[in-house]
Amino acid sequence: MTVSTARPTADYRTLVELGTYREAQSLVDHLSDNGFPVGEVRIVGSGLHTVEQVTRRVTNGAAALRGAGSGAWFGLLLGLLLGLFLPGAAWLAVLLTAVVLGAVWGAIFGFLAHWSTRGERDFASVKGLEADRYEVQVSATELGRARQVAGL
């Protein structure tokens, strides 16, 4: 048996259309602060498009450095796990060796992974979805009260 946690589809009406998500969020926060049942509110974005923000240039050296960092963390984890079974201070030597080897292999793999792209993507970025406009919608039964609380 499958249980759905989704709310039943209600009859929603547009309270206001805004240009940014921040404005829509601020309005819903205002409604909430004034005791409005925000479970009856939704924000609907229209005109969706992806936005990719380039954050930095990536070189072979930078890729190797990031790989070394990741490898060192992996080596630390592996060294701690292996060190649990060793007596005395031998665990420290295993831990340090694992961190160093992890960093070296991470740097090698980081360099090779970036080098193999042959410069097709020499930058790092963050992708996100944005909308052209945002509608704050309220269930039809609460629309009048929402207008009053929002001052519309």
TrEMBL record:
Lineage: Bacteria, Bacillati, Actinomycetota, Actinomycetes, Micrococcales
Domain General stress protein 17M-like stretches: 19-102
Protein's name in the database: General stress protein 17M-like domain-containing protein
Keywords in alphabetical order: Membrane, Transmembrane, Transmembrane helix
Keyword Transmembrane helix in annotation: yes
Xref: Pfam families: YflT (PF11181)
Transmembrane regions listed in the UniProt entry: 63-85, 91-113
InterPro entries: GSP17M-like_dom (IPR025889)
